[in-house]
């Protein structure tokens, strides 16, 4: 087996492993997004936040999701535990998909080169 065949075989194996990983991860609940937080001044005349310029309410947590992260969902004053877990899963899933995509591209390029020979 030539070195290039060896590399190709390794890449195909890695792509298969990633496919399994993606399948496993996508069976779990997941969110592709991130959490943002905000501190605010409420606008009530007699509130602490109006009297003290360094005082803000919050943090208040929001979830921003793919595709454009534009819309946010209010989560509350604490981040729900399952949301954090689902974001972690989403991140792993996104990484695995991206990695598989790159590996598959490389496999295709190498295969094309081998065919042309
Ligand atoms: Zn206030």
From TrEMBL:
Residues 9-81 form the DUF6788 domain. InterPro entries: DUF6788 (IPR046738). It comes from the Archaea. This is DUF6788 domain-containing protein. It comes from Candidatus Heimdallarchaeum endolithica.
């Amino acid at each position: 087996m030539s070195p290039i065949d060896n590399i190709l075989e390794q890449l195909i194996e890695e792509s298969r492993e990633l496919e399994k990983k993606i399948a496993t991860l996508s069976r779990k609940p997941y969110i592709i997004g991130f959490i943002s937080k905000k501190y605010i001044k409420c606008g009530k005349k007699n509130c602490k936040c109006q009297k003290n310029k360094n005082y803000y309410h919050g943090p208040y947590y929001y979830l921003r999701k793919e595709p454009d992260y534009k819309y946010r969902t209010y989560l509350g004053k604490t981040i729900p535990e399952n949301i954090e877990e689902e974001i972690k899963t989403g991140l792993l899933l996104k990484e695995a998909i991206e990695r598989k995509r790159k590996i598959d591209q490389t496999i295709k390029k190498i295969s094309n080169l081998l065919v042309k020979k």
